[in-house]
Amino acid sequence: MPAPGDRERPGLQRRLGLPDAIVIGLGSMIGAGVFAALTPAAAAAGPGLLIGLAIAAAVAWANAMSSAQLAAQYPSSGGTYVYGRERLGPLWGFVAGWSFVVGKTASCAAMALTAATYALGGPARGVRFVAIALVAALTWVVVRGITKTAQLARVLLMVTLAALAITALVILAFTRDWQSPLMTDATAETAAAGVATAAGDPTAYGIVQSAGLLFFAFAGYARIATLGEEVRDPAMTIPRAITRALGMVIALYAVLALLLLATIGADGIAASPLPLLAAAQAADVSWVGLILRVGATVASLGALLGLMSGVGRTAFAMAREGDLPPQLATVDEQHHVPAVAQLALAAAVVLLVAVTDLRHAIGFSSFGVLTYYAIANLSAWTQDDTHRRWPRPLQLAGLAGCVLLAITLPIGSVLVGAAVIAAGVVGRSAFRRPEDSAPA
Questions:
Q1: Which of 133, 193, 320, 329 is exposed most, by the fewest CB atoms within 10 A?
Q2: What pairs with residue 149 in β-bridges?
Q3: Regarding predicted confidence, which is higher, 5 or 395?
Q4: Cα–Cα distance measured from residue 148 to residue 82, given in angstroms and rounded to the nearest whole number
Q5: Which domains are seen in the chain, by residue range?
């Protein structure tokens, strides 16, 4: 029997297997990359987009290995928030968790706006209203339980992959005017002449900045780690799910980026908020646009679904430790989900949808998540040989990559992201009760 005044520690139930975890990871990544991040990345890097994609993938892979190694030792909800607390101390854990919550809340807004934009066929006056309605609908699913979330994620992923496959094959079959996916002489002459283009010049800074923006597209594998308390046999399931999901998505992004560069070029990608639709129009197969719009909308919804699940679980873990209001640690007794945290997240996403735009949301999200993974790499560095799966130089490479990509993001994203993280640290110091800091 617990001592007087003790509270029972709320917990979640392990209901997900390896296929479920892979599906949630895939669904969280595919919509974010193909349909949201390529346009601002092409605007930054121009024909250097493929190099930026390769850099983002390499940094994501190093971070994924650190996350998998840590998740096997600490299979609890919260991801790097938990790892930072256990390996580096409570303040490090808070910075990781806060960075993730605020950064991925921005990601939720970005994916809701992307889904609404594709659903309406492009920028329209009703985009924000549709995005808010989509957030409300998916929140209802998330609070119905993790099993319902995984089932919907599987359906959304199947529709997305089918639509992407059909669209890509049709574009391949009907495109006649192929371009080089690398910088051509004409592109170089245009840049040298100072002619304005939609895409940026392939400078080192532009390429690294594009990698930072594209990192937004790969960060969905964190959803798997944040669900650690709801996965069966987590020490085996989480590392396998992370590596398999990320490997599949890297291959998919590379193929689609090559296809877009070869059909509409970097300028075409940078100029269009719907680059795959622009590629279909360039191939004179606009009729495939309906299939693509359905697939893009569904993919963005899948990413939004995974994001909402992951952010809610991290907020739940932070509230359980006293780093966020304790009400967010409330678990719905019927559906075994942190319902209050999910509802609070939905309210924050609706606010961001109403006031932000897609590019700013992506940049801000990337800064927060890169901070989160920098702490994950530091945490993995401290693990002993018993729990080590990969050598320490990989964690050092991941840390260096996170710092480099973060500082080369658009300056507005860096300044706002740093200010929000600092505000969180100050707020924690001001409002955290002394007993919450006492050792257990």
A1: 193
A2: none
A3: 395
A4: 25
A5: 18-174+199-427 (1.20.1740.10)
